[in-house]
Amino acid sequence: MSGIVSTGGKEEEFAFLDLGDLQQIVGKPAQVSIVQLSVVAEGDSLKSIAAGIDVAGIQAQPVQQIANSEFNVLSKLQVPMLPVTAVVLLLTLICVTTTMMAVVTERRREIGLKKALGAGFTFPCR
Questions:
Q1: Alpha carbon of 102 to those of 38, 53, 75, 108, 123: distances in Å?
Q2: How much of the chain, in percent, has pLDDT values that exceed 90?
Q3: What's the pLDDT at 54?
Q4: Are 14 and 5 contacting, i.e. CB atoms less than 8 angstroms apart?
Q5: Residue range 69-93: mean pLDDT, rounded
Q6: Residue 88 near residue 95, CB atoms below 8 Å
Q7: In this structure, what are the phi and psi dihedrals at residue 94, rounded to the nearest 5 degrees?
Q8: What pTM was estimated for this model as a whole?
Q9: Of 19-28, 43-52, 81-90, which one has max mean pLDDT?
Q10: Cα–Cα distances in Å, from 81 out to 3, 15, 69, 84, 88?
Q11: What are phi and psi of 45, to 5 degrees?
Q12: How far apart are CA 72 and CA 85, in angstroms?
């Protein structure tokens, strides 16, 4: 079986071989030099799993590939969020202003009558 790995990460530089073929190529049958183990974990749980593997001369090297790629995606999404937020705030301001203008326009005659009778501008709550 053969193929090309395209992930955008370090594993693109790896050569994946069948263990038997690798041992035959290097002339060391029944010997293992590297094992790749995929574990879904994060933070301290990943570190504890790596510490549990670090026994009897085995060296574990945790690779937090998914967390790093998620961080990259989120950081790229933050850039367009500022203009989108500004547009939403502007549209909200326009909607509130239009609503207030409609209320004032509807009550224009009533406000004019009250002013003609001598009413002044007062706050309803003191």
A1: 62, 70, 42, 10, 20
A2: 16
A3: 66
A4: yes
A5: 88
A6: no
A7: -65, -40
A8: 0.38
A9: 81-90
A10: 38, 40, 19, 5, 10
A11: -65, -35
A12: 21
How far is 4 from 15, CA to CA, in rounded Å?
Answer: 9
Q: Is 22 exposed, middle or buried (0-12, 13-18, 19+ CB in 10 A)?
A: middle
CA distance 105 to 54: 76
The residue type found at 104 is V
pLDDT per residue over 99-126, tens digit each?
Answer: 999 998 998 888 888 888 888 766 666 5
* Residue 30, C-beta contacts closer than 8 angstroms, at least 6 positions apart: 23
Residue with tokens 């041992």: 23
Residue 58: pLDDT above 70? Answer: no
3-state secondary structure of 103: helix
Give the model's pLDDT for residue 37: 66
CA atoms of 111 and 12, how far apart (whole Å): 74
Estimate to the nearest angstrom the gap between the alpha carbon of 49 and the chain centroid.
25
80 contacts 73 by C-beta, under 8 angstroms: no
Q: Residue 106 and residue 111: Cα distance in Å, rounded?
A: 10
